[in-house]
Design a protein that fits this description.
about 50 residues; mainly beta; two-stranded antiparallel ribbon; elongated
């Protein structure tokens, strides 16, 4: 999973940049950076996916 951040300047076009890549190995680092009180786990997101 890739998490992107929106970076903008009032005079420029908004740009997205990669903030963090989440994999099975670092799944505990999953955070929604703009909504820190929302808790979603990696396992919840991929519960129905067969790998």
């Amino acid at each position: 999973m890739e998490i992107y951040e929106l970076d903008y300047d009032e005079f420029e076009k908004p740009n997205y940049y990669l903030w963090k890549t989440i994999k099975e190995e670092n799944k505990n680092e999953l955070k929604i950076i703009h909504f820190p009180n929302i808790k979603i786990t990696f396992d919840d997101l991929f519960d129905e996916v067969d790998i």
